[in-house]
Design a protein that fits this description.
Elements lengths: L2 E19 L2 E15 L2 E7 L12 H17 L6 H8 L6 H18 L4 H5 L5 E3 L1 E4 L5 H14 L3 E5 L6 H11 L4 E4 L9 H7 L7 E2 L7 H8 L6 E3 L6 H9 L5 E4 L1 H4 L2 H13 L4 E3 L6 H10 L32 E3 L12 H7 E8 L1
Parallel strand pairs: 5-6, 6-7, 7-8, 8-9, 9-10, 10-11
Antiparallel strand pairs: 1-2, 1-13, 2-3, 4-12
The chain binds N-succinyl methionine and magnesium ion.
The site of N-succinyl methionine (SMG) has 15 residues, from strand 1.
C-alpha cells in the first residue's frame, strides 16, 4: 500500500475515578490517535503513551513530534508498505516503540479492512471471548479498597489486580484476603521497590498471589532473577519487556516466570505475537496488559488475548472501568468476559461526533 497521509489527533477523556499508581495519579486520559489513509482505505491506531514520561520514557507530545518529524515521513516515502514492513522501515530510528506501534496498528487496520479480514482471523484464534481482569488503583483507605474490589467482583471481573507501593502493600493484600478469601489476586508495583524490600515480598508470599508485577526497575532484569530466587510468588515483568529480545533475556535469566504483554510497549501487535510465540515455546504464561486504551485498541487486545499462551486474565476490562463514555461503541463485560471482535480490521472505529467532542488537536502529514 502507499500511504496518502496520516492524521495525528490528540484526545482527552475524563476518567470515571482517579487512577492512582506508585508513579502518580491520573484523572483523565490524554492519548494520541493515528489515522492512516492508504490506497484510499482508512486505518486507525492508538498510541498508548501517557501524557508524561512516568510509565516509560515516551509521552504524548514526544510521540507526536517523532511521528511528525521522522517516523511518518519515512513511511510516506514507501510505495509498497505493509504492516510487516513498518518495523524494518522505521528500524533506523532508535526506540520510540510506543509511537511505532501506533503507526503499525493503523497500517495493519487499513490492510485488514482492505482484505475484509478480522484481526482474530489474522491471528488464527477461535475463542469468541476472553476472561476479563481489572486493575485497581491505590485507594484513600483500606475500607475504600475493599468497597472498590467488592464492586468489581459484583460486576463479574475474574481477576483483581491492585497497585502497590512502599507503605501500601501488605495491609491491602491482607485486608482483601480477609474480606474475599482466595479470589484470583495479583499486585503491580510499577518498579517502586528495590532488593532492600525483599522482606516485604517474602511476607506477600504468604497470601497466595497469582504474581507480583514489575517489583524492581525496568532495566533490573538481572536483579529480578536474583529476587526470583528469594521469593515464591511468581514475578511478572511489564515495563522491562520492551521487545522479544528483552523477553528472551528475561526468560533465559529466570527474571520473569510470567510476562505481561502490552502491544504498545513492545512496538506493536506483530512484536506482541512474536513474544507470545517465544513465551509459549518456553512454557511461560502470558497475559495482555492495559494502558487505559479507548475502544479503538481495546478489541485488538481482546483478540490478542485469545491466543493459546494467554492463560491468565488480562487487564482488558469493560470500557466503563475508565470511561463514562468511550469514543467507540463500548466494550461491555459479559459474565466476566470481553468479546473478541469478528469484524474486518484491528481497530474499532470511533464515533465521529464523540471523537470531535474529546479532540484537543489534529494535524495531517502527507499529500
Ligand atoms: C496509567 S498506568 C498504565 C500501566 C498499568 N496498567 C494497568 O494497571 C492496567 C490499566 C488498564 O486496565 O488499562 C500497568 O503498569 O500495568
Ligand atoms: Mg504493570
Amino acid at each position: 500500500m502507499r500511504i496518502d497521509g496520516i492524521e495525528l489527533r490528540v484526545v482527552t477523556l475524563p476518567l470515571v475515578s482517579p487512577f492512582v499508581t506508585s508513579f502518580g495519579t491520573q484523572t483523565e486520559r490524554t492519548a494520541l490517535l493515528v489515522r492512516a489513509v492508504a490506497d484510499g482505505v482508512e486505518g486507525w491506531g492508538e498510541c498508548v503513551a501517557l501524557p508524561e514520561p512516568v510509565y516509560s520514557s515516551e509521552y504524548v507530545v514526544g510521540a507526536l513530534d517523532v511521528i511528525e518529524r521522522f517516523l511518518g515521513p519515512a513511511l510516506l516515502k514507501e510505495s509498497d508498505l505493509t504492516a510487516g514492513r513498518v518495523g524494518p522501515v522505521l528500524h533506523s530510528f532508535v526506540g520510540h516503540r510506543i509511537a511505532k506501534a501506533a503507526l503499525e496498528m493503523a497500517i495493519l487496520d487499513a490492510q485488514l479492512r482492505s482484505a475484509e479480514q478480522s484481526f482474530a482471523d489474522y491471528l488464527g484464534v477461535t475463542k469468541d471471548r476472553v476472561p476479563s481482569g481489572v486493575s485497581v488503583g491505590i485507594q484513600p483507605s483500606i475500607a475504600d479498597l475493599v468497597t472498590a474490589v467488592g464492586g468489581y467482583l459484583d460486576e463479574g471481573y475474574q481477576r483483581i489486580k491492585i497497585k502497590i507501593k512502599p507503605g501500601w502493600d501488605i495491609e491491602p493484600v491482607k485486608a482483601l484476603r480477609a474480606e474475599f478469601g482466595e479470589i484470583p489476586l495479583q499486585v503491580d508495583a510499577n518498579s517502586a521497590y528495590t532488593l532492600d524490600d525483599v522482606a516485604i515480598f517474602q511476607e506477600l508470599d504468604d497470601y497466595g498471589l497469582l504474581l507480583i508485577e514489575q517489583p524492581l526497575y525496568e532495566d533490573d532484569i538481572r536483579l529480578h532473577s536474583v529476587l526470583a530466587r528469594m521469593i515464591s510468588t511468581p514475578i511478572c515483568l511489564d515495563e522491562s519487556i520492551v521487545s522479544a529480545r528483552a523477553a528472551a533475556d528475561a526468560i533465559a535469566l529466570n527474571a520473569a516466570q510470567i510476562i505481561n504483554i502490552k502491544p504498545g510497549r513492545v512496538g506493536g501487535y506483530l512484536e506482541a505475537m512474536r513474544i507470545h510465540e517465544l513465551a509459549y515455546s518456553a512454557s511461560i504464561p502470558v497475559w495482555c496488559g492495559g494502558m487505559l486504551e479507548t475502544g479503538i485498541a481495546r478489541g485488538a487486545n481482546a483478540a490478542l488475548a485469545a491466543l493459546p499462551g494467554f492463560t491468565l486474565p488480562g487487564d482488558i476490562s469493560g470500557s466503563d472501568r475508565f470511561y463514562r463514555e468511550d469514543i467507540t461503541e463500548p466494550f461491555v463485560l459479559e459474565d466476566g468476559f470481553i468479546r473478541v471482535p469478528t469484524v474486518p480490521g484491528i481497530a474499532r472505529l470511533p464515533i465521529m461526533d464523540r471523537l470531535e467532542e474529546v479532540t484537543v488537536s489534529t494535524r495531517w502529514i502527507g499529500s
